[in-house]
Amino acid sequence: MLSGRRLDLLDPTPVDIEIEDIAHGLSFVARWNGQTLGDYAYSVAEHSLLVENLYSRLNPKAPAKWQLAALLHDAPEYVIGDMISPVKSAVGPGYDELDQRLTAAIHIRFGLPAAIPATVKKQIKKADKISAWMEATRIAGFSESEANRFFGKPDPSLIDGLDLRLRPPMEARNDYTARHHALLAAMT
User: Is the pLDDT higher at 94 or at 125?
Assistant: First the structure.
């Protein structure tokens, strides 16, 4: 990793995880395999910031630790990349196991339980689907009816005033890192 840490992908440990590595990697990983409109790819870092925002709108009384879990929901992709769901399925259970080991190490590193409660995970997934709908309709060329079929139609009040930001990776990295630090500070 750029931090100098050596991350064993098959046996990751929390001491080898640094937020700067996660933020940097995610800011360069393109959602939708880069098949989006705009001068910059829509990064997983940007997507994660949006998911955390949506999760907080869905759960306004959620504690900072679950907001942090929402921000980190795709954190393993900083080293394994972003794969669309059909590819993940084709790769098989090995991908899920790797993702779960990395997620557990990341969570422990930042003071979260290795596995988050199913109710919280369900709400993060709901925010993730709303984000996917917004991305699909605004930058990935889907019609609203197509996106509704794949992701479900979101409540318009949840997405009111939210825009997708396609910007240089360093800006997304800096905002991701700053949000992470703010949530950690709120947890203590």
Answer: 125
